[in-house]
């Protein structure tokens, strides 16, 4: 069993098809902050039972150094009940539920394990605030492929047709203290495009990125991580803030700019993320 709760940074979450035992085994040594063993879209109907058995064996064998989630098949499918039962009894760190469209579904399927709700439809986007408010929901994962299809959008290098929906998911998750994770990038042969999309996601407020290939892990960890320069900057700002406050100053300047409590809080978050990634031993590049 995996004993890892989903508590650390989630710069990268790697999808691994449940019907690929060698890929599952390889994932144990990769630099993902979390692994999602996938029983849904990545697995053909005729391989569902085999994939479920593979995932069960992988979970019970243990030895995972990061949280391991299971993406189960959705409500109304022939596999939903067996998938959820297996994931719960085998010790998954959480469940990833596809195509969540309302808070009722999320509430009903919160079975004592963290639930990660996939927002993949227009209804899911519109109801994202209510879904994020469900106590058992740990975060929201964007499913951009299905969402783009449902919206009838055209491909765009900067995801312009999806920007409203992406920001809506971030807003809903952050408003309720949950983590928003950005969608996968499909073209594993386009590292420049992937890096650009990671930078965009970070700018929009996502906490990390879901990925589909090991080569995407390093760039995702770097994009959503902390650099040495940012660490030094944060430490210097906090030192200036502490010195000014101890001197009784109500206004502190750092680098020519005014510093307020929110800037000090942000610097603390930078250092906390840095410490968490160092303790976890996850690679950032």
**How many β-strand runs?**
10
CATH superfamily placement of the largest domain: Phosphoenolpyruvate-binding domains
Q: What fraction of the residues are assigned to beta strands by DSSP?
A: 15-25%
Which residues sit in consecutive blocks of at least 5 with pLDDT less than 50? 281-285
The CATH topology name of the largest domain reads: TIM Barrel
Overall pLDDT level: 93
Instruction: Please give the CATH architecture of the largest domain.
Output: Alpha-Beta Barrel
Number of helices: 12
How many domains? The number is: 2
Main CATH class of the largest domain: Alpha Beta
Commentary on this structure:
This protein has 285 residues and is of the alpha/beta class. The chain folds into two domains: 12-223, Alpha-Beta Barrel (TIM Barrel); 228-280. It contains twelve helices and ten strands. It has helices spanning 21-27, 48-61, 80-89, 103-108, 122-126, 128-133, 144-151, 163-175, 191-204, 217-223, 228-246, 261-280; strands at 12-17, 34-38, 68-71, 94-97, 115-119, 137-142, 179-182, 208-211, 252-254, 257-259. The strands form two sheets. An eight-stranded parallel barrel has the order 1-2-3-4-5-6-7-8, surrounded by six helices. Strand 2 (34-38), helix 2 (48-61) and strand 3 form a beta-alpha-beta unit. Helix 2 packs parallel to helix 3 and helix 11 packs across helix 12. The longest helix is centred in the last third of the chain and has 20 residues, at 261-280. The chain is globular, with a radius of gyration of 20 Å. The relative contact order is 0.12.
């Amino acid at each position: 069993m995996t004993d890892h709760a989903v508590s650390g940074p989630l710069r990268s979450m790697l999808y691994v098809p449940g019907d690929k035992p060698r890929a599952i085994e390889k994932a144990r040594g990769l630099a993902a902050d979390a692994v999602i063993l996938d029983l849904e879209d990545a697995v053909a109907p005729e391989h569902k039972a085999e994939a479920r058995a593979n995932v069960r064996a992988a979970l019970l064998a243990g030895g995972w150094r990061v949280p391991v989630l299971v993406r189960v098949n959705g409500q109304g499918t022939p596999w939903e009940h067996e998938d959820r039962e297996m994931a719960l009894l085998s010790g998954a760190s959480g469940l990833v539920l596809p195509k969540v469209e309302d808070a009722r579904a999320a509430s009903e399927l919160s079975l004592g394990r963290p639930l990660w709700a996939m927002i993949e439809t227009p209804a899911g986007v519109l109801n994202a605030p209510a879904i994020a408010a469900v106590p058992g929901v740990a975060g929201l994962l964007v499913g951009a492929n299905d969402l783009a299809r449902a919206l009838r959008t055209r491909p765009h290098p900067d995801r312009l047709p999806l920007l409203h929906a992406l920001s809506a998911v971030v807003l809903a998750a952050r408003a309720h203290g949950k983590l928003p994770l950005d969608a996968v990038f499909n073209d594993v042969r386009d590292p420049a495009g992937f890096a650009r999309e990671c930078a965009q996601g970070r700018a929009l407020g996502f906490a990390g990125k879901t990925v589909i290939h090991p080569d995407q892990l390093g760039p995702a960890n770097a994009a959503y991580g902390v650099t040495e320069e940012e660490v030094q900057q944060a430490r210097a700002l906090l030192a200036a803030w502490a010195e000014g406050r101890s001197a009784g100053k109500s206004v502190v300047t750092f680098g020519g700019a005014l510093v307020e409590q929110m800037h000090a809080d942000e610097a603390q978050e930078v250092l906390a993320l840095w410490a968490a990634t160092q303790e976890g031993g996850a690679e950032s590049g």
